[in-house]
Write a structure and sequence with these properties.
Layout lengths: L1 H16 L3 E3 L11 E3 L1 H20 L4 E3 L9 H5 L2 H4 L1 E6 L6 E3 H27 L5 H7 L1 H22 L3 H10 L16 E4 L3 E4 L7 E4 L5 H5 L2 H7 L6 E10 L14 E11 L4 H18 L7 E5 L9 E9 L2 E12 L1 H10 L5 E3 L4 E3 L2 E8 H12 E5 L5 E5 L10 E5 L6 H12 L5 E3 L5 H11 L3 E5 L1 H6 L1 E6 L5 E5 L3 H9 L1 H5 L5
Parallel strand pairs: 3-9, 19-20, 19-21
Antiparallel strand pairs: 1-2, 4-5, 4-6, 7-8, 9-10, 10-16, 11-12, 12-13, 13-16, 14-15, 17-18, 21-22, 22-23
Helix pairs in contact: 2-13, 5-7, 5-8, 7-8
């Protein structure tokens, strides 16, 4: 656990040191769980969003995008269930005066049990070597089987208590498990209470006539209320999807883990409208498609897993999370939900307007069912960034810090370095910058020895360094160095654009989804 914490601290400090993420309002001592994306962070974030948009909208004829307003009519949130049911179960520790999410305390307890399972597996792997069969060990070792059964019983009970809104049993479970306050070590807990997560605000100039509004807690409702507008103006035929990226806001009481859980965050969602009765096949289709998208970035298949929901939202008939192995363990990165006709039916009920689709083939109207894919852009940023940050031991005995970001989404694609600041080398380097900047985000760097510049660009995540030296004056070639392998080769200046394009083009990365 200590190693995980150390690794995560390094991720957070590296994000600040290399201009990726800053604490919001830091000069005023910051604002808890609110962050600003810095000069490199905004580029990486934009590139991830663009990579998602191209895969989701540009590559599908039957999916279009919108950008709905953050403010919506307040009745929207009554219809969606957020006014009455968008709550977190909270518990206070009487001694430390700290507030926690009750379900997270239980889940953290289960994570410790999972940690014990992993320790047993690691010990057995060391003992048995190459002949070790993990699957057999996990299903037959009495200690591991016991741990797994214990975890399952705890999570099932938690899911049932939350579903039944039996908050007294959630507290009883915390007490029975002997869960202590992480800060004080005390077991002196209050009762569990529900807390609504929506931020309220006012619309209107005068206090008397101002309307109560909410900052949207999700982007999905902007899609649902525009369903008919998009369908008619785009002449869309079912099945079709509407995609959107944008800010959402949740008054997280226990916001933590850096940008993993924030109060202001960004979602990338797609709602896919389908014929009732076809939801199971579309659910499987989008599970497969979304996992392919993640794997196309090359972050490692072993770092992803599906986690089916024990507790389904009242409107869903199937739900799963794509979980990613963050520095603090496997956590939700993307949700795939079969939402039935709940959303459109609710908006029909509250507005009195028909939100239906006329199916010419069947010659009838119906309220479409919805299949949702929803991913947190900030979480995706953290997944990519934390996975990329590595300490490498080199053959010569030295080490380097390298940020091995997928080159397709790296903020800066290439740094152009004149070997020295004289002899006409800076002029040639500047000319290369002028030529490449039309196609790629590139940077000019002339400060320090070239070796130190390489290390700086490695740590910042730049895939290529292009060095202009005295030979360039004679033969118009430069040295191009690749970040991950540190391999260097001489190439003509005229070939640079093609070489970089081959490595960073979205098409070449997304094509992996088809293989």
């Amino acid at each position: 656990m200590a190693n995980q914490e150390d690794r995560f601290k390094k991720v957070i400090s590296h994000a600040k040191e290399y201009g990726y993420v800053f604490q919001s309002s830091e000069i005023y001592d910051g604002l808890s769980a609110v962050y600003d994306y810095a000069q490199n962070g905004v580029e990486l974030k934009n590139n991830i969003r663009d990579y998602w948009w191209k895969a989701m909208v540009q590559m599908h004829e039957n999916i279009v995008g919108i950008d709905a307003a953050i403010f919506m009519h307040p009745t929207t949130w009554k219809a969606s269930g957020h006014v009455d049911a968008f709550n977190d179960p909270l518990i206070d520790n009487k001694d430390s005066k700290k507030r926690y999410r009750a379900d997270v305390l239980v889940e953290d307890h289960v994570a410790k049990i999972e940690g014990k399972i992993n320790k047993e597996i690691a010990k057995a792997r060391k003992r048995f070597g190459e002949s070790f069969d993990e699957e057999q060990f996990v299903t037959t070792n009495p200690r591991v089987v016991g741990y797994m059964e214990k975890s399952e019983i705890i999570l099932k009970r938690l899911a049932k208590s939350l579903e039944d809104e039996d908050l007294a049993d959630v507290k009883a479970l915390i007490e029975e498990l002997g869960i202590v306050c992480p800060l004080s070590g005390s077991k002196n807990w209050t009762d569990v209470k529900q807390f609504n997560l929506m931020f309220g605000t006012k619309l209107g100039a005068s206090a008397d006539s101002a309307m109560d509004l909410y900052l949207r807690p999700e982007t999905a409702q902007g899609i649902f209320v525009n369903f008919l507008n998009v369908q008619k103006t785009g002449r869309m035929k079912i099945p079709f999807g509407i995609a959107q990226t944008g800010k959402a806001f949740r008054n997280e009481i226990v916001a933590r883990q850096f940008i993993f859980r924030m109060r202001e965050f960004e979602q990338m969602e797609m709602q896919f409208f389908i014929k009732p009765g076809t939801q199971k096949e579309w659910y499987e289709h989008w599970k497969e498609e979304r996992m392919k998208w993640h794997l196309s970035l090359g972050l490692g298949e072993e770092n992803y897993r599906f986690h089916d929901h024990e507790k389904l939202a009242h409107y869903a008939d199937a739900a799963t999370d794509i979980e990613f192995k963050f520095p603090f363990g496997f956590k939700e990165l993307e949700g795939i939900h079969s939402r039935t006709d709940f959303d459109l039916a609710q908006h029909e009920k509250y507005t009195g307007k028909k939100l239906q689709y006329f199916d010419h083939e069947e010659n009838k109207s119906y309220v479409p069912y919805v299949l949702e894919t929803s991913i947190g852009l900030d979480r995706m940023f953290l997944a990519v960034f934390s996975n990329a940050l590595q300490n490498e031991e080199l053959e010569n005995g030295t080490t380097r810090v390298v940020l091995k970001l997928p080159s397709v989404i790296a903020p800066t694609k290439a740094a152009i370095l004149p070997l020295v600041k004289k002899d006409g080398l800076p002029e040639i380097a500047r000319k290369i910058v002028e030529d490449l900047k039309w196609d790629f985000n590139v940077q000019y760097d002339e400060k320090d020895a070239v070796g130190r510049r390489y290390r700086r660009q490695d740590a910042a995540g730049t895939p290529f360094c292009i060095t202009v030296d005295h030979d360039t004056l004679e033969d118009h070639t430069v040295t191009i160095r690749e970040r991950d392998t540190m391999e260097q080769k001489r190439v003509p200046i005229s070939q640079l654009k093609g070489l970089i394009k081959d490595q960073v083009e979205v098409k070449n990365w997304l094509m992996r989804m088809r293989s």
